[in-house]
Amino acid sequence: MTEKKKVAIFLNQCLPLSEIFVRHQVEALQNYTPKLVACRSVVPSVAGNLPQAALNQSSSKSEKIKELLFKLTLKSPYLKEAVGDCDLIHAHFGPTGWLASGLARETGRPLVVTFHGFDVLKKRISIVNDGLLQKAYHLNRKKLAERASRFICVSEYIKKRAVEFGFPEEKCVVHYMGIPLIEHSVPKHGRRNEKEPVRLLAVGRLVPFKGHKKLIEAVSAVEEQGHNVELNIIGGGPLRDELETQAKASLKKYKFWGPQPHDKVLSLMRQSDVFCHSSMHMENGQTEAFGLVLLEAQWAGLPVVAFRSGGVPEAMEEGKTGFLVEEGDTAGFAAAICDLIKNQDMLKAMSTAAPAFVKDNFDNRKQAEKLEDIYASVLRG
Fold it and tell me: What is the radius of gyration, based on Cα positions, of the chain?
């Protein structure tokens, strides 16, 4: 039997709850043995039992200094040794890719970098607002473009932006991340219970580009038309107090759940009727790169109502698994929700089509095979 090749999955943190998608992708690999290599460990973590090596494991003063020195110099004997026994390095996010580029040069290992969104979207970067690492990445994008063998873009939209950002088009490839379908129970079809309120669900950080203010305005319009709905919002962030104040003044039934573990999010999806996604473009360029949460919601049998923003249209089938509305059009967003409420046959049809769409296009195992093909092409030179 041919020995599996090894891939170092290079990360800034190993592995925050918000990056469970990395674990899902890594666990689906069949022909490569992964090792998580990171600047520092975090608690809580979703790294599970995957092999890992972190430069800063305990947040002691000495380890913090080692981490800082590495980020300033791109040199660390410990991390060099950690990636040295691997055949290639796969870094997630542009800034982390810049850090990994130093190790790739020292060890001679080819480097693959995945762009997830903000790394090629935000136009204005400052140390005060974005941090030293993000600033260093922006200043050294040309060097990273030379050092990396391949740039994986999570959507066609992100590939376009990456090329506009100066990364070589011939090095950029679109690869959609999938979701582990086995994590979900058998998808439901149609409403749970027509005597109860229609449950609308939104999942995402409470930050400006997620558009929750517009969502609350739209749901308020739905209520004004006499529909019995309940808006559930999962996620935390700096806008929570402001949004709760807005909801209290304009909605009859709503609940802010705060951040929730992944299994709880999936559970709440299966208890909901319609998934609402209100991400929008910001002046600084930030928007939704793709939206794995859209796949999870559709696999759970939820029709989607979303703004046509960034890579969102690539994560659903317009008119078949949900509706796309022009950005900021709260009246149109409300009308789409009302259409689903009034037309139960359409809701059921979309609820049936949504998981089939995800199964055909975003099965985590199939997507991992395509990722391994990218690895193989890089190793072939």
Answer: 21
